[in-house]
Amino acid sequence: MKIPQTAEEVAYQLMDIFCMFGAPFILQSDNGCEFANKIIRNFADMCPAMKLVHGKPRHSQSQGSVERSNQDVRDMLVAWISDNNTKTWSEGLRFIQSKKHRALHSGIKTNPYEAVFGTAQRIGLGDSLLTEDMYCSTETEEELECRNE
Question: How far is the C-alpha of 8 from the C-alpha of 14, rounded, in Å?
């Protein structure tokens, strides 16, 4: 996957994520640069039912939570890019999204994934009923079926 170079490409990548879980009712913009504003306009074109809200210029109270969230995602992407030895940040978006959806949300007293789907998100062998020995020694579907009985 190539790195998105235009606001339209970034909007398309983010809309892909929104289509997977549903678009927000409200999308708040932090009155960023023209590139960010163009992304927001592209969202409006792709999802006219979504309400676009712009924060007050230079108003830290309305911008603070958006800026903290943006910084959190940015930091997680930088770490993901480094850990995976890549420059293609857009490939990491789904991994970052998944990680954020597994984090406890203090307001709802659970994580967003469980709130939406009613069950914990399963990620790899750590969430499996198989032990590591069982996992390593399983070669066929029949062996897997026998282990699950």
Answer: 10
Q: Is residue 149 part of a domain?
A: yes
Query: For the segment 28-54, what is each residue's pLDDT rounded down to a tens digit?
Result: 766 566 656 677 777 777 777 777 776
Locate 48 and state its tokens.
């006219």
15 and 70 inside one domain: yes
The parent domain of residue 37 ranges over 7-87
Answer yes or no: are the C-beta atoms of 29 and 53 closer than 8 Å. yes
Backbone angles phi, psi at 72, to 5 degrees: -60, -50
What is the rounded distance in angstroms from the CA atom of residue 145 to the CA atom of residue 87? 40
Cα distance between residue 127 and residue 40, in whole Å: 37
Question: Sign (positive/negative) of CA torsion 9, 14, 16, 22?
Answer: negative
Residue 102 DSSP code: T
Strand partners, 26: 51
Note the pTM of the prediction, 2 decimals.
Answer: 0.52
Q: At 52, is the secondary structure helix, strand, or coil?
A: strand
* Tens-place pLDDT, residues 51-67: 777 666 655 555 566 67
Domain count across the chain: 2
DSSP 8-state code for residue 33: -
